[in-house]
Amino acid sequence: MNNKYIIALITILFATLTPFVFSAEEKEEKKDPYTVPSHVLDIAKENTYPNSTEDEEVIEPSELTKELIDSSDVKITNPNLIKMLNESTLDPSPIAFGYRGMVFLGRWPLNYESSDTNINWEYQKINVNELNNLGGKDNQKLNYIQQEQKEIKGALTNKIANPSDVKQMIIMKAKQQTKLPLSYNTTIGNGTKKENSYSVPAQKYGYLHAFAPAVNEKGQVTFGEVYIQLKGTKKSLVIKNVTKQGIGAWIPIQDHVSFSFEIK
């Protein structure tokens, strides 16, 4: 077999196998980073404390509000600002030729842009169960039982104007990104149990640590002074003195517990 034939054969094999290599790499890249791992369990049904589901109100802009938002060069997603614009009544007279006016609506957080979304599956330790099998001859099972009620609170990581509006925009973006049940406050009730069990060998001591997971969101908020400009029968939104501020937030994942088993 001459060298030219060998080189040609290798080239054909490489060309045939390369798509499979790329396909595997693409599949790895498409893996959802927000998939709940096997050691994190949903305890919504078992939780002795009934957490209320926080569904952020989706405010649909009216036709007038859409017209105003589209007239601005700055993106507006703040639901509270959209709600206020929906409730505004603007009806300039059709004969108001030459009429001009500016209505100041205040300084608002206009939108939030996310730059990084990560999950800390061990955000806050909430419980530990122990089993002493040092004098035992057989394996024993260790189960999760919540020893006391724990409230897990999320928060913004630094001070910012209009924090309630900012928190609302951040959690809406984080929910959209992760598809997880997020809440700035969630509680694990005393006596909450889960059927998952862990085997503690004879002559060993077992520890079952439980943690509350949370999403860490980082991004940027755009602020601006909002005006409605009236020119005759035309209406538009004018944004002045636009500024941007970096912000972050910790948002607990509601009714989820992360487990870590340790043997000594």
From TrEMBL:
Q: Mind telling me which Pfam families this protein's record contains? A: YfkD (PF14167)
Q: Which InterPro entries match?
A: YfkD
Question: Any idea what this protein is called?
Answer: YfkD family protein
